[in-house]
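Final report, Chapter 2: Outcomes

The project's central promise was a pipeline that accepts a single protein chain and returns its three-dimensional structure in a standardized token representation, suitable for archiving and comparison. That pipeline is now operational. To close this chapter, we reproduce one record exactly as it appears in the project archive, with the input sequence first and the structure output second.
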Amino acid sequence: MALILLVDDDRYVRSSLENLLASAGYETSGFESAEALLASDPMPEADCAILDVRMKEMTGLELQQVLAARAWKTPTIFLTALCDEETQARAMKGGAFAFLCKPFDEDELLGSIEAAVALARG
């Protein structure tokens, strides 16, 4: 079963994503902040990570940079309400697999996750 990491400071968003992904057959691990993910020991080996852009301390874009500096290869999908072209361009230039806007289409998200998991598993 594929493991999907969820990093979003809104517990309702995390909960709804956990329910959606569980119904699609995925295992999830949720984190309320970028710092919580980075502090997890060991940091989970995952098939995909879903990040919010706007979080209280470290943003999703900053987290993406930290993970890249650690040579973390897990495909990353941004799921955010901050959907301007500049933010999307920064995320994609930083190596994001996909960039989706809230509110999101469930089928589009699940399709992106399926493709990211396939990439992660080679």
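Archive annotation: Strands lie at 3-7, 27-31, 48-51, 76-80, 98-101.
This record, like all others produced under the grant, will remain available to the consortium after the project formally closes.
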